[in-house]
Amino acid sequence: MNENNWQAKWSKEQIRAMLREQLQTFWKRETGVVREKLPQLLKAAALPHAVIISGLRRVGKSTLLAQIAHQLGENTFYYLNFEDERFLGFQAEDANSLYQALIESFGEKTVFMIDEIQNVIGWERFVRRFMDMGLKFYITGNNASLLSDESGSRLTGRYLPIDLLPFSFREFLTFKGHDLPDLDRLTTAEQALLQRRLDEYLEQGGIPEPVKYPDLPLHRALYDDVLYRDIAARYRFDDLRALKELAFYLMSNPAGMISFNKLKGQLKLGSVNTVKNYIGYLEASWLLFTINVHDYSVKRQQIAPKKIYAIDTGLARAVGFAFSPNRGRLLENLIFLALRRQGRDIYYLTLKDGYEVDFYLPHAGLLIQVAENLQQEQIREREIRALKAAMSSLNLQKGLILTANGEDSLQSGNMTIHIQPIATWLLKNMC
Q1: What are the domain boundaries of the chain?
Q2: Is 6-163 in CATH node 3.90.1150.30?
Q3: pLDDT of residue 403
Q4: Beta carbons within 8 Å of 349's beta carbon, 6+ residues apart
Q5: What is the pLDDT of residue 156?
Q6: pLDDT tens-digit series, residues 267-309
Q7: Torsion angle of the four alpha carbons 304, 307, 311, 315, in this order, in degrees rounded to the nearest 10
Q8: Please, which of 141, 187, 218, 224 could form a disulfide with 146 given CB 3.0 to 4.6 Å?
Q9: Residues 6 or more apart from 341 whose CB is under 8 A from it?
């Protein structure tokens, strides 16, 4: 036996004691606010597929796992947490011995609940083999590349991916103990209160612990964990300077336009490939998202500047830098996260005459523009003009402007532009 093997470090009784302790701790944890992804997991219960929940550290993946566990019942599943330091050294070939210990401790069950499986190299091999034996898996991980090419090929057609983002606005209000208003009968006072709640959401973001303890520097601790544990350790960085400078720049410019070539020169990062790789690491660790311009040429999509969005507005505010509150861009970032939460393909749009539209959703045939406010006539006309030009260019009939307040509907030929308050749009769209 390899002396570095995990099994050599522990007696059978120590392993069984750890498994019992993990299950007890997991079952007793607070299940918190019911996440909007829970119905999707419940529907998947009848499927033979593995359910793989991925997302940023501390975003609530384990809590969501606990919520589905409580729906299934305490005696229906095995629970494993590979973030536990007692699993250091565990390898895929140890799975049979672990399975035996689980049966000896709890009897035969058909469902596995596993936290932080990315810590086990080659995990997909034993998961696939156990699935072939008729076992069901609910799995969490904090890396967007959890299903790499190799992992994905081993589980092809056998898994359901679930991306868990920070709290939606509705979840945030529930978490904070605020009543959800009747959106069809909002009084002026209720509208003002809802706007204040939106400002609070924009400032604090939707990561549960920083929202619960806003006076503690939890955003910074989380950010450092991602950089040092999820990126530096995983990709074996010797010098973090360049990565930290790039991450800081991007987190300071939510909803900004970026060019790989310009970033290379600005931050002295050596090559365009280095920039691409570093941004890829940041995306894989759930700190950032990028979207492409919409173009019928895939090549032009790839070489054109991209827009960058942070995983959370509270995190961006806490770790980034801005000369001003940057409210307009943070609101745009908020809308992006709402659209991303719905799993939509999202692009931005530019036109030859210089107009730009924040979001284009091809599957819905919808263009969305985000404006902090439309009270100034010049701003209102500019946003409407850009949207109409884009709708005409793409032969679309639907356009939407989301703003801090105000509601209206404009008709121009066969084109309709709706103006809606961001707060009510977020709640009506369950995001």
Answers
A1: 6-163
A2: no
A3: 96
A4: 293, 294, 356, 357, 359, 360, 367, 390, 394
A5: 81
A6: 888 899 999 999 999 999 999 999 999 998 988 898 899 999 9
A7: 130
A8: 141
A9: 36, 165, 168, 431
